[in-house]
Design a protein that fits this description.
rod-shaped; mainly alpha
Length: 188
């Protein structure tokens, strides 16, 4: 089953943009504190979809969608219908059909190759863009991790201070109970 069979090359080109934008939007809403990774992921998704589209075009090079305004396929005249010698020319018909079929496949590949290379070039540019985005995302994640670590150390210091104060309060309470065993002054 060919899921992309009904898409023209413009729709295929638009599909990769829309899919990457939808991914960025959904992932950005789902995890807004990780937008740097979402941006990198959407660029990588865009690159992968364009590379996939280029491979799809190369795998389906004989499809008529890639031959917009190209040369029409060649056809072979039949020699087997010739009077008197037609039956002797049947092997020539099959040989010519094979040659013309190969030429038609070559022409179809020649027409599909620039389209596939366009998709692959866009994928390459997206991958090239992903390198600085990956570095930026790593720097942002590192800064966020340092900030979380500093916050954690600040909270740990506060907890340690509160523990010390609690121990002092416990000592004061236990020292107060040991001096005055009878806290009730009116009791005998």
């Amino acid at each position: 089953m060919d899921l992309l069979g009904g898409m023209s090359r413009d729709e295929l080109r638009l599909f990769s943009w829309v899919a990457a934008a939808v991914f960025a939007l959904v992932a950005g809403v789902w995890r807004p504190h990780r937008l740097h990774w979402t941006a990198l992921g959407s660029v990588l998704l865009f690159a992968a979809l364009n590379a996939g589209a280029g491979i799809y075009v190369l795998n389906h090079f004989s499809d008529s969608r890639w031959s917009a305004g190209g040369e029409p396929p060649l056809s072979v005249p039949s020699f087997s219908g010739a009077p008197v010698v037609g039956q002797f020319l049947e092997p020539l018909d099959s040989a010519l059909n094979g040659v013309v079929g190969g030429v038609n496949e070559f022409l179809a590949f020649k027409q599909a190759l620039p389209i596939a290379l366009d998709f692959l070039a866009v994928s390459g540019w997206a991958l090239l863009l992903s390198f600085p985005l990956a570095i930026l995302a790593a720097v942002i994640s590192s800064a966020m991790a340092r900030r979380r670590s500093a916050d954690f150390e600040k909270y740990r210091a506060t907890v340690d201070l509160l523990k010390d104060e609690l121990e002092q309060v416990k000592r004061q309470i236990s020292a107060g109970h040991s001096v005055d065993r009878n806290p009730c002054t009116e009791c005998p």
